[in-house]
Amino acid sequence: MKHFGESSVKFANPPSILGAAAIVGPKEGEGPLAKYFDKVSHDILFGKDTWEQAESELMRQTIETAVRKAGLPMKAINYILAGDLLNQNSGSIYGARSFERPFFGLFGACSAMGMGLTLGAMLIDGGFAENVVANASSHFCGAEKTFRFPLELGTQRTPTASWTVTGDGAAVISANGKGPYITAATTGAIVDLGQKDVNNMGAAMAPAAADVIAKHFGDLSLANDYYDVIATGDLGKYGNKLLVQLLQKQGLHFGDSLTDCGMLIYDAERQDVHAGGSGCGCCAAVLAGYFLNKIRSGEMKKLLFVPTGALHSVVTIQQGETIPATAHAVAIEAALPHFSE
Amino acid sequence: METSKSQAVQDYEKLVREISPKSAVLYNSVKAFFVGGTICAAAQLLYNFFEGRGFSRDDTGLLVAAVLIAAAVLLTALRIYDRLAKFAGAGTIVPITGFANSIAAPAIEHKKEGMILGLGAKMFVIAGPVIVYGTVTSVIVGLIYYFMK
Amino acid sequence: MNIIFWSFIIGGLMCVLGQILIDLTKLSPAKILVFFVVAGCILGGLGIYERLVDFAGAGATVPLPGFGNLLARGVKRAVDERGLIGVITGGFTAMAGGMTVAIVFGYLAALVSSSGMKD
Description:
The structure holds three protein chains of three kinds.
Chain A: E1 3-4, E2 8-10, E3 16-24, H1 26-29, E4 39-40, H2 51-69, E5 79-83, H3 90-96, E6 103-106, H4 112-125, E7 131-138, H5 140-147, E8 163-164, E9 167-174, E10 181-187, H6 201-219, E11 229-232, H7 236-249, E12 258-260, H8 261-264, E13 277-278, H9 280-296, E14 302-306, E15 308-310, H10 314-318, E16 325-333
Parallel strand pairs in A: 3-4, 5-6, 5-7, 8-13, 11-12, 11-14
Antiparallel strand pairs in A: 1-2, 2-10, 3-9, 7-9, 10-16, 14-16, 15-16
Chain B: H1 2-19, H2 25-52, H3 57-77, H4 81-88, H5 90-93, H6 96-109, H7 115-122, H8 128-148
Helix pairs in contact in B: 2-3, 3-6, 6-7
Chain C: H1 2-25, H2 29-45, H3 49-56, H4 58-61, H5 64-82, H6 85-112
Helix pairs in contact in C: 2-5, 5-6
């Protein structure tokens, strides 16, 4: 069995991330991580007519870049696993249309990259695929239109609101290669602690992140200092504070090694993004651009990547429902770990 | 099980309230006061202008509303209104100019979904409820007025 | 001059009330707009709002309660003129001019401009 404890898996033959790419929009290109991205588009429409087409084009370009960097032809990709925030996953579907590769659309809101990496590694370690692309994208304008208000409407954002990242991160996972390796994964349940404020998504998602991180360490019997960095998806700075508190209640203290992709991608003060970045593309781009580069350069050895997603819809919120959330933990390591031997 | 779950929800709500920053109500209110007040004072200047030209009270009201609405729509299309609103909050939402913004903004945003079902149908996604509840209330007011007269 | 001063003060205060409702109650702006219009219509029906209009001019008519008051005034006048028929024509007649301007200008604005990135 490769299944451990309540909800974790260890890969017998950990797949490698053969290549990765991150492409972002103009605002992200002004942020502190700009130099790590493969491309910063100064055109928020990516040369297209609508926000929806723009996101699909962003997704198409990023996957193309990642596959090229992996040194593979598109035909060598056995599956594309991709998720986004638009209705019916249309950002990913229209983006992947031209590739003509087997495709699974994932919906996990901003946790999509965690789902893609987990399922991709499972497909490969299970022997069902040699090369898989995991991808997640989001576009600020498309997300505003889908979840909030028209862009021209005069509104004020609350201090806990987050800013949807225009960006995409793609990773080519392969049975071949010399790392970084996906060594283990813990899949989150749907956690709902009764939060209703859609302008405070970090608060809705922090319990899901705490739950999956605690299970990951418990299921795999890891010491608290096992990872160099634990990076949650996009809780933002207040969600991150909540997560620290929730983990402390369970005796888990990570100190400075615990960070959040939504806090890294923008300079919150200068760029006026309130709580930080959010959206499927936020943690995907931070992983594909920033973290994987750090691992390849040897600055970082062990990363626990924990994308979080708020799984409500506009309809359920209008009907008075609370915000359910999830999080998926994926262990990414520079070298093969001792525990799989 | 049920009680421990609801206890967890309550405990967490407390923690969220503790950690999440509140909106700066006082600062926001000052900004809303000055911008909203300025819009109304400017409108009063318009009233004085039109009344001075001999328009009736009703016609003056309509002309002022028309100028304010046209200006707000223009500023919306030029992307100035939403920038102003980010600063002024309710100062730009509560005056009739905010109502005009709420009609123009979805029309502009949803144009890409077609002239009929996009622009035409979505124009009132935000302003629609105001008209619905305003009309229903006016009918109730009218009925009471009719029977009390 | 005096009425310009008072329209600034009263108009500003109405916006402050709206701001406090938005910041403290977490009600969406759409709900607050509805609340203002309904409140203005009821106060107008009771004849109270007109006193504020006499005193503060545009400070009372330009904020959304003024729109509610306009409807109330319209329906009362229509009832005076046409009886029960006025109940169903008064509100819409009163808002006809403003709504037409908003729709036509909104339509034209959407024709000539496209949505763009927020900053």
